Amino acid sequence: MWGDGADAPCQPFRVRMYLSSFRVGNCPDRLVELAKGGTRAAVIANAMDAAPPQVRREAVTRELDALTALRFVAEELDLRDYFGTSGAVVSELHRFDTVWLRGGNVFMLRYALARSGADGHLTRLLDQDAIVYSGYSAGPCVLAPTLRGLEAVDGASVVGEVYGDQPIWEGLGVLDYAIVPHVDSPEHPESAALGLVAEQYRRLGIPHKTLRDGEVLIIDGTTEFVCR
Question: pLDDT tens digit string along 132-151?
């Protein structure tokens, strides 16, 4: 799916996405607008599944509070509850107008999406314009065709350590380019490493977009722009 150059356009799906570099970013009103009056929001925090339980709980609470402040009715959708089930997560996803996938380890997030079956259904809901896909860091990163290169920042081996299984290297493929967050964001501890990832993508001709913390990539149908 990779093309030439570093700024290939988004595929012309009927999708609504709010893709932030870090946390809600500088454009929260845009997220509310994309939801078109829908207030039910699911927080998917499985990128944090390798963290100690208390750290993970605090991370979930932070996201719930941020969405509640925007007048969403937010709750966690823990994909671990649907591992190995046959389609059970589908009815859960239908309850929500917006999904918010927070940052953490992108390989843990990708594994949870696949193991629960949420990956395929989320892409179908997006293509049907039935849900807003939103989030930051790992949440946008997992949309790319491949996760190759991100192992320089997020350990892929953690999937084996936690679940005894192999990491998944294919992204969701919703976008035909990679998103590299936290670039030129000196207050973020991963900024320098992700700058090197972006440089590697440039050298290899891999299409990608970089985001500084505070910036948000907005996609609404065929309209796409970075909100600063």
Answer: 999 999 999 999 999 999 99
The span from the CA of 35 to the CA of 132, in Å, is 6
Taking each helix axis from N to C end, the angle separating 118-127 and 106-116, rounded to the nearest 10 degrees, works out to 90
Tokens 């946390």, located at residue = 23
Q: Is 103 exposed, middle or buried (0-12, 13-18, 19+ CB in 10 A)?
A: buried
- Could you tell me the residue ranges of all domains in the chain? 16-227
Please, are residues 132 and 65 in contact by the beta-carbon 8 Å criterion?
Answer: no
CATH of domain 16-227: 3.40.50.880
Tell me, what DSSP letter sits at residue 109? Answer: H
Q: Which of helix, strand or coil describes residue 84? A: coil
Q: For residue range 21-35, what is the model confidence (pLDDT) as tens digits?
A: 999 999 999 999 999
What radius of gyration do the chain's Cα atoms show?
16
What is the pTM assigned to this prediction? 0.93
Question: pLDDT-based confidence at 9, cuts 50/70/90?
Answer: very low
**pLDDT tens for each residue of 13-62:** 579 999 999 999 999 999 999 999 999 999 999 999 999 999 999 999 99
Two tokens, residue 45: 């925090």
Residue keyed to tokens 């896909």: 133
